What we know:
Layout: E1 3-6, E2 11-14, E3 19-23, H1 37-45, E4 53-59, E5 67-73, E6 79-84, H2 101-123
Antiparallel strand pairs: 1-2, 3-4, 4-5, 5-6
Bound molecules: zinc ion.
Amino acid sequence: MFHIYCPYCEEHREEEEFHPKGQAHIARPEDPEACSDEQWGDYLFFRDNPRGIHHELWVHAVGCRKFFNITRNTVSYEILETYKMGEAPRFTAEHPEGRPAETVAAERTAAGADKVERQQGAKA
Ligand SMILES: [Zn+2]
C-alpha cells in the first residue's frame, strides 16, 4: 500500500482511491475534420512509452473525483510530483532533476491569474 498526493484535496490518500487514465497532455485536434486518417488514428490510439520520466492522467475516483496529472519515473516507479490540470510539470525529460521551483510557481500563478480573467470575461 502506498499513498498518492491529490493536488485538489491537498493530502495523501491511499492508492486504491485513484485510477490511472493513460498518458497526460494529449491535445484533441482543434479541427478533427481537417485531420488525415493517420493524424486522427495517432490522436486516438498511439501513446508514448518512454523509459524514465512520464506524465500520466489520473483520477481521484473515490475522493474528489477530479482529474490531475502525475509525473512518474517508469524505471523506478517513483512518483516525482502531482499537479492540477492546466499546470505545467516541474519534472520533464529535458529537466529530470526538476525545473527551479520558483519558475514553476510563477508559471502556475500566471496561469491562475489568466484563468480568473477568462472566467470574468465569460460572465461579462
Ligand atoms: Zn482529491
